[in-house]
Design a protein that fits this description.
single chain, about 325 residues, alpha+beta, Nuclear Transport Factor 2, Chain: A, two-stranded antiparallel sheet, about 15% strand, RNA polymerase sigma factor, RNA_pol_sigma70_r4_t2, DNA-binding
Length: about 325
């Protein structure tokens, strides 16, 4: 993968900085790729904190191996290769970082280590941001976790980043035939795991929320703040799936999900004074929930629910405790 034109200035400058041991110059040139590298690590790992750690590991490995960069590939490509192998090393040592069977009947599997990704940390480059849209959604992130690590890497490098087979094989230290075979198997698994409406992950989506989707989110917020159980239920599909990682369990069915919330106290004393804020997380509509208890004068950050809306109704809700996730950049109180 050789790049020509003005971009080569970065590679040439990087080589000079690397050979001179110029830490400031090295940091300046690599830092502009941080967001793209971190999103790549997140796709591999489905966990924001791990992606942060592996991004740091990538830059450390890049500094220690700076003399190996010869400028034949773009600096970005070189960093993504290092990041891919750092993630593979991480996964090789952590066999538990795989989906597990859901504890409830009919729940399928669940990714308990899944964490949300803040939209504000996506790459600023318009093309990279467009590519990120479909492949940062939770459905894709969860589906790709069902792939063995090297199949996962092959799919992301080939189908998301658009690398040629030869470059992918070189990065993964495999033959082109092995990469082609791994990619074919990965695509089959992805089609089994992804909803039909999300099968074409290789076509960058550019759409914004439709008026119907905005109306659904608005109605959800209003019903939630009123503790209106019937109103919430009317917005759910019958086959809705609800999960709140890392807590175990996938609840299937709108009524079952609502019943589980009520059993947990929703709408009862201490859990009946809510304010909600609309946001986007993982390029998906999200509702940030703030709770005020009788002894507290302010509403405090409680949770964020990421919504998958299909034909005006909610098909899936993935909830995350929000107070322990400062990287989301949410105000702690209202």
């Amino acid at each position: 993968m050789t790049d020509a034109g003005p971009q080569r200035t970065d590679e040439d400058t990087f080589i000079v900085a690397a050979r001179a041991g110029d830490t400031a110059g090295f940091a300046l040139l690599t830092e502009r790729h941080r967001r793209a590298v971190q999103v790549h690590c997140y796709r591999m790992l489905a966990n924001y904190e791990d992606a942060q750690d592996l991004t740091q590991e990538t830059f450390l490995r890049a500094w220690n191996g700076r003399e190996s960069f010869d400028g034949r590939a773009a600096l970005r490509t070189w960093l993504h290769r290092i990041a891919t192998n750092a993630c593979l090393d991480f996964l090789d040592k952590r066999n538990h970082r795989t989906p597990v069977p859901a504890e409830l009947p009919g729940g399928g599997s669940e990714v308990r280590y899944l964490q949300p990704y803040p939209d504000r940390m996506l790459p600023e480059d318009p093309h990279e941001s467009a590519v990120a849209r479909e492949t940062i959604e939770l459905a894709f992130i969860v589906a790709v976790q069902h792939l063995p690590p090297r199949q996962r890497a092959a799919l992301i490098l080939r189908d998301v980043l658009g690398w040629p087979a030869a470059a992918t094989a070189d990065a993964l230290e495999l033959t082109v035939a092995s990469v082609t075979s791994a990619l074919q198997r990965a695509r089959v698994t992805m089609r089994e795991r992804l909803p039909e409406r999300r099968l074409d992950w290789r076509t960058p989506a550019t759409r914004e929320l439709s008026d119907d989707e905005r109306a659904t989110v608005k109605a959800w917020v209003e019903a939630h703040e009123r503790n209106d159980l019937d109103g919430l239920l009317s917005l759910m599909r019958e086959d809705l799936r609800f999960a709140m990682p890392p807590d175990p369990g996938v609840v299937v069915g709108g009524r079952a999900a609502l019943d589980s919330w009520v059993e947990g106290g929703f709408g009862g004393p201490g859990y009946d004074d809510w304010r909600c804020v609309v946001a986007t997380v993982n390029r998906m509509p999200a509702v940030v929930e703030y709770l005020r208890t009788p002894a507290d004068p302010v509403y405090r950050l409680f949770a964020v629910d990421v919504l998958d809306i299909v034909d005006g109704r909610i098909a899936a809700i993935t909830g995350f405790a929000a107070a322990d996730k400062p990287w989301l950049g949410l105000p702690p109180t209202l």
